[in-house]
Amino acid sequence: MTTAIDLFVEEARGVSVVDAAISLGLVGSSFKGNHAGACPVCQGKDRFAISNIKGAWNCRNCGMGGKDGISLVAHAGHIDVRSRAGFLAACAQVLGKPLPDEAERETEEQIAERRQRIVAQKAKNEAAAADREKQDNAYRDREVKQSRGIFFNASAEPHPDVAAYLKVRTGYDMPGEVFAYLRSSARCTYWHGRDDRGHEIARHVGVAMVAPFVDLAGQVTGCHQTWIDMQCAPKFRPDLGRDDKGEPLQMKKMRGTKRGSLIPLFGLMSSTRWVGGEGIENGLSIAGAEQFRQDTFYFAAGDLGNLAGPAEPKSRFAHPELTKSDRNGRERRVMVAGPEPKIDQAPDEAMQVPDHVTQLVLLGDGDSEVVFTAAAMARAEKRLARDGRVIETWWPPEGMDFSALMTRY
User: Fold this and answer.
1) Strand partners, 206
2) pTM of the model
């Protein structure tokens, strides 16, 4: 590339995720903190996130994410940055200006000045990246510490509402061993948003089930909170208020580090047979149906992204039916994260299963979008495959999950 293009690219790399999100209209101009909402590509309501603190974006449904504005505008605009033309188009869009004229003639002095600006811009970008990484590490450490505090301060004695909730959502009474993992908090605060002074807002205080995320060494890395109100049938979720777009706030939150970890539900991790899927209720429904087999470890991954892991970008494919209008009003097929796992992914990028496991049963959700979910479950099978290990995926009837199946009759 020419010197002019080099500078253009370095300027584009200096555009933050938040600035790009503002220009795309995904967040407001005064955005701070974290944002969760509809993905501009797959339109998943609660699986797309932007973090001002981390300087990153992520869509668990698409299996895509990044830490710069270029990747976000490319994702939103269906731009393939694997090609030079596509990458430069994304740079132009994130900067909001056309590509420079490569045929432009410059004096030697102008070329030298431009090269100096490139060096200065690179140094600025590298310093900003180092600062973001430092802040990211500090934020993650604080989150892990706080999540451990939430879990270990919760009661090991099951709250009556937690026991009742699990019974009505799974169809089975929970044995005491389950509550060795799933703790209770009688007065757990639900924080969401910030006031004019930047302080977090307490939206609700009530009963919550608190589960740990643990790594394969059994160390707590995070926690999963589920707020419960047994007076609010049929889903028994309290009124937590609404987000900025008027959507009801989710009854569940995950804190700390979940990637690479899992939620234990019943049994020992030393078991050679493991059974689990995304959610706590589905895993316990199957455990109850199997009468809580003593030779089995039941678990939950927390979400589909942690279960399936990131996809190899080249395996992405167009959804056979779903479309979305691009910025120019043209209908384009929604892209789906493919069935092939990302090559050479790190252990902390997705939930892990130890080598001693010889039988692994993965639980799919029949009430999620079928193409996205099927691709993700196929990816999970391939990612977790080992010599001597038998893997199968169990599916509930279409339009249901295992929790609904077990409580239907």
Assistant:
1) 188
2) 0.73
